Amino acid sequence: MQVRRAAVLGGGPGGLYAARLLKLAQPSCEVVVHEQGDPDTTFGFGVGLAAGTQRKLEAADPDTLRDLVVAGCRHDMTMSVGGRMTRVRNDRLIGIARTELLAVLQRHAEKAGVRIEYGTRRGTGEFDADVVIAADGVSSATRAAGDFGETIDVGRGLYLWCGADFALPDALFAPVETGHGVFVTHAYPYSGGRSTFLIETDEETWRRAGFDRTTDATPPDASDATSLRYLEEVFAGELRGHPLIGNRTRWTRFRTVRCARWSDGRTVLLGDAAHTAHFSVGSGTKLAMEDAIALVEALDQEPDVGSAYARYEATRRPAVERLQELARRSRLWWESFPSRLHLPVEQLMVAYMTRAGNVPLDRFAEGNPDVVTAAAEQYAKAPPPAGDLVDWVLDQPLRHGETEFPHRVLPAVPDGLTVTEFADVVTDPWNKTGDDVVARARQARRDGADGFRFAGPADRLAVLTRLDLAERVRTEVGGLIIVDGPASARADLAAGLISGRCDLVSFTEEEA
Q1: Within its chain, how far is the Cα of 442 from the centroid?
Q2: pTM as predicted
Q3: How many CB atoms lie under 10 A from the CB of residue 507?
Q4: Cα–Cα distances in Å, from 472 out to 153, 188, 204, 469?
Q5: What residue stretches are annotated with the FAD-binding domain (predicted)?
Q6: How large is the average pLDDT for residues 216-220?
Q7: For 116-160, what is each residue's pLDDT tens digit?
Q8: In the chain, what are the helix, strand and coil shares in percent, each to the nearest 5?
Q9: How far apart are CA 375 and CA 385, in angstroms?
Q10: CATH code that applies to domain 158-245
Q11: Using one digit for the tens of pLDDT, what is the confidence trace for 325-352?
Q12: Least confidently predicted of 36-40, 237-241, 257-261, 440-444
């Protein structure tokens, strides 16, 4: 369709990128971005662009990507636990200052002929436009006022964003135990010789440290200085003597936004306005810019607005929902992260990389054989040979008490072992249903059970959730832990074994 006029609400990455791509695709279209903020004021620190996102940006708009890469900072990833460190190579990951990202996108949008207006809040009904693209963020006023069928799920953990005035050599994941509980940072360098420090904790630790009170006392336009000074001491080693920098920094809980519909009349949602996915999978900027690519393609190729919006949503929704599910699992893993600090750092890194089921164990091993070899030796007390890593993990023997198992695949429970089976349908192993399973497992142990078997549906998501539930019981209750799953899930089950989520697995028949 030929778009005469397009109004874009929001001057963030998604809105600016959509505006540029639309103007490039349809030069005669009048495209105006309406950003309520000041052009010289932005919030946040650095953002990450992974290799997959860079490939998509290169195909859509190589000129913009080239400037983003020049402005960015490449880095690998390091995890530090208990004085030990391990490193993962990821040489196409870049961090870029949010200010630099927006400057590049603003410059390229204006170069294409987009007009950008700042400083005024606008509503969708104010425009004489064929298309209104609402890219106004997680707290979207457009979404709240329209008929989009929104739902918002709020996470249990708390986090805050801050920064530091030096560049870390790598992205860093580091937990620190304090007298109040565990705090963990996800930190990474970005351009300008600075680093982002994202810091998470659980609600009990947050309250014990008094941060519920400091959060209530911090105005919306200020930073929680008390928390920042406390966290400077907690992460003094990681900060290397530098202070933490705030920018409207305050504790909050992650909000997962979902919408039943992404469009309402001539208005369409894009990026965080339509959907969010937890920051631990680095997804906000990625999703918004990939949305922009698909939306502009649909507008250019379909005959009318309704068809274009339907095509855009049909194209993007499967990928978004897949990433939201990965992000949900990642969020639950991070919210329960302190329970894993007993693991050696290499095993913990394998657990981290396989936490959401997106990175197969053998693929991770191909790129980082030193990390996986160390984790395998911690798992089996022997180095893995060259060959099929999954087979090797499953073939390792296990001694549990007085019982010897020749390998980790259990055909039947041996005589003399009492095993309690759980077949509960659980979507979140750390919710009340998960709490109930843990309570029943504790009682079963008191009654003499040697271990537990976790059974259920054969689909992959159910198997991944069983592994998480099994890990929780293994950590909090103990005993021999067995997880059932189909042979098609053998790689996931092997990752669960080497990551300390279970002790044995049992293959079941596939569902028809």
Answers
A1: 32
A2: 0.93
A3: 17
A4: 22, 29, 18, 5
A5: 99-324
A6: 95
A7: 999 888 888 889 999 999 999 999 999 999 999 999 999 999 999
A8: 45, 20, 35
A9: 13
A10: 3.30.9.20
A11: 999 999 999 999 999 999 999 999 999 9
A12: 36-40
Contacts 24+ apart (CB under 8 A), 55-58: 56/289, 56/290, 56/293, 57/289, 57/293
Q: What is the DSSP letter of 41?
A: -
pLDDT tens-digit readout, 43-86: 678 988 888 899 999 999 999 999 999 999 999 999 999 889 99
Q: What is the DSSP string of 472-500?
A: HHHHHT-SEEEEEEEGGGHHHHHHHHHTT
Alpha-carbon distance of 186 to 408, in angstroms, equals: 34
DSSP string computed for 246-282: -SS---B--EEEEES-SEETTEEE-GGGT----GGG-
Res 512 pLDDT > 70: no
Kindly tell me if the per-residue pLDDT of 227 is higher than 80: yes
Using an 8 Å Cβ cutoff, are 93 and 48 in contact?
Answer: yes
- Report which residue type is found at 339: S
What spatial distance separates the first Cα and last Cα of the chain, rounded to whole Å? 44
- d(C-alpha 230, C-alpha 115), whole Å: 44
Q: Which residues of 436-449 are buried (b: 16+ CB within 10 A; e: fewer)?
A: ebbebbbebbeeeb
Q: Which residues contact residue 369 at a Cβ distance below 8 angstroms, ignoring those fewer than 6 apart?
A: none
Strand partners, 6: 31, 131
pLDDT, mean over the chain: 94
- Measured in whole angstroms, how far is the alpha carbon of residue 252 from the centre of its chain? 16
Helix (H, G, I), strand (E, B) or coil at 53: helix
Same fold, 5-74+92-151+255-333 and 158-245: no
- CA distance linking residue 216 with residue 207, whole number of Å: 12
Where are the chain's structural domains? 5-74+92-151+255-333, 158-245, 360-508
Q: Does domain 5-74+92-151+255-333 have CATH number 3.50.50.60?
A: yes
pLDDT tens digit sequence for 275-293: 999 999 877 899 999 999 9
330 φψ region: left (φ > 0), alpha (ψ -120 to 50), beta (else):
alpha
